[in-house]
């Protein structure tokens, strides 16, 4: 909440998911166990993982909100199926573990009711609530000779009571039904005033933001910095932010121009493979063999030329809006922006 308050106080907007351990989330999950929710139609989008299928989203906004911010619940048909499949898989695995445990009873550390009950709960791995687990006690009276030797009419026997345990279990259908009512649901918190469906659309753009953060970590190689003051760290991160913005503009520029001139793919990947959506990493790798050759004589440049520029490189430069002539006429120390 401290971070959300900071963003809000600085005039920023946020949309983020609410952790499950928040009291507001727990209260809502308890509420829907016995109450129906007035879900509103949200959006319908194609399922990117399954062709010819779509995902339906519904929304529900709590009237009381969450500490001054809007609390919007989302129901996803895709997540509902995933939650159900994940639970059924976990139940089947727990049933297998309980069956294996039943074979090991009355031995070693499984000789008491308490030990067996504890082991059964552990075997379920957090899914014990989906089972009715019972440990039943069985008693058997065994006669044993009081003294060694061949038994006869006068042989004295002592009766010994042997106690063994049996593990019995079946599915707790009530708990499973309660769990099903939570399938496909997750909460969002926001300080934006747009309607719930638009909030959901904005949130669904998160993968694109994460992809850009991947660029920062892997392509631009953001790493821990050891600087003395927070201001210097902020300055360093600002430079990375500018670099990310430039990367984003480069990708937007080339893809937009490809669409305008009717180019579907570019063969700029390794082994001349094609891509419909060139990235900064693709472009930089494609130009890695282009270099500036300089011949020096007595510290004077007598010849310089750009090597490795092909027609495809020229096409990429044109799509990026960079005049090929400028690229081919690069001079020594061009990065210092010295006059020719």
Account of the 3D structure:
Among the domains are: 2-84 and 179-194, no CATH class; 100-175, no CATH class; 287-336, no CATH class. A hairpin with an 8-residue loop joins strand 3 (54-61) and strand 4. The protein has 340 residues and is an alpha+beta fold. It contains eleven helices and nine strands. The strands form three sheets. The protein has a five-stranded antiparallel β-sheet with strand order 1-7-4-3-2. The protein has a two-stranded antiparallel ribbon with strand order 5-6. It has a two-stranded antiparallel sheet with strand order 8-9. Helix 3 (77-102) runs antiparallel to helix 4.
Q: How many distinct helices? A: 11
Name the strands of the widest sheet in spatial order: 1-7-4-3-2
Cα end-to-end separation: 56 Å
Main sheet summary: 5 strands, antiparallel
Radius of gyration: 34 Å
Q: Can you give the helix content as a percent range?
A: 40-55%
Number of strands: 9
Poorly predicted runs? none
Percentage of residues in strands: 15-25%
Mean pLDDT: 88
Q: What topology does this entry show?
A:
Blueprint: H1 2-9, E1 15-17, H2 23-31, E2 40-46, E3 54-61, E4 70-76, H3 77-102, H4 113-124, E5 131-145, E6 157-171, H5 173-180, E7 185-190, H6 196-203, H7 206-219, H8 230-261, H9 280-286, E8 291-297, E9 300-307, H10 311-320, H11 324-328
What's a quick, concise take on this entry?
With 340 residues, this protein is α+β, with helices and mostly antiparallel strands.
